Amino acid sequence: MGSPPQNRLSLWQQRFPGLLLIVAIAGLISIIFPNGIWLISPVVISLLTGLFIRNTIQIAPKYKAGINYTVKTLLKVAIILLGIRFNFQQLLQLGFAGLILILVCIAAAALATFLMAKALRVSPRLATLIGVGTVICGNSAIIATAPVIRADDEEVAVAVSTITIFGMLAVIIYPLIGNMLQLSDAMFGFWAGTSINDTSQVVAAAFAYSLEAGEIATLVKLTRNLLMGPIIVLISFFFARQQDGTENISMAKVFPWFVLGFVALATLNSFGIVSSGVRQLAQSISVFIIQMVLVGVGLNTDFRRIGKMGVKGFGVGLVAALAVSLFSICSIYLTQNWLLRPF
Fold it and tell me: At the N or C end, where does the chain have fewer CB atoms within 10 A?
């Protein structure tokens, strides 16, 4: 049976102050910084703003319920809406060779992340967030994975900050290295698309190199993004087994059901059922909710609790970024005759 109407009303009354605070902060950021600042996206600005407020001003207890509701529940709504950005036809465009390269790079980076996390004694949850943020789609993957593995707000904040730093560095460094190595447009496009974490950073680095590199990198990156759903499902099953300590895990109980909403919208978009107007509206709503979530994460995060975690997280992020970058460029060199044939 559901909660009585009076109880539900009381619950929303408790959540309202926190929700209103977060909407106000995220809304102001969207108005003042609609396109971010240089290479810092509005999503990251939202996290930094929440962190600043939390660590300089005492947050009243009345805001807590709304903040927690945003971080834990509205987050899943954002993930579902993210599905409308994806199109399964991208897999066909890229081809079998490109898909294999992406999967191999993901596996190599995941292994390097795991080994470094073990060496530094970083929590499996933080290592997982940094890993998926590096090898799938940056902040979106971190946000989508966090509820599945029950990550703390501090771990989310460290993971987002870490992969953002390395993504920003990649935008500057990749074109310089590409010119030094005299990479072809197709080679650079595959390299940027398979190894830079956030879509906006991939686009910035690749189009700075050339128009053709930018187009190829965008296609490769969007294909990586499509793997977010299946990988989240695998992660949820793995963490459930780790926590239970047995092989007898009910998939129905650990399956992240909100991923089905993500896949459903991606499927509708792939078959052209979703109009461009609806798609743009859903994208805008999902981005704004993610900004709200990151504001909430910041408001829940105490700097004193992330100091040591942040240093170790940076080390894991560095190894993950280097691993995926080096493995990607070496693989492209070795397989270019087969890999780049369609391009």
Answer: N
> Is the Cβ–Cβ distance between 22 and 292 less than 8 Å?
yes
Q: How far is CA 279 from CA 86, 147, 258, 274, in A?
A: 10, 25, 19, 6
DSSP state of 247: S
Q: Put residue 275 in one of left, alpha, beta given phi > 0 → left and psi -120 to 50 → alpha.
A: beta
- Mind listing the pLDDT tens digit for each residue in 138-193? 778 888 888 888 888 889 989 988 888 888 888 889 999 999 999 999 899 999 99
Per the listing, tokens 């390395």 go with 166
CA-wise closest residue to 83 among 270, 240, 239: 270
Give the residue from 293, 314, 282 showing the smallest Cα distance to 126: 314
Backbone angles phi, psi at 37, to 5 degrees: -125, 115
Query: Residue 94: what residue type?
Result: L
Tokens of 1: 């049976």
By the 8 A CB rule, do 139 and 78 touch?
Answer: no
Nearest to 147 by CA among 48, 260, 274, 236: 236
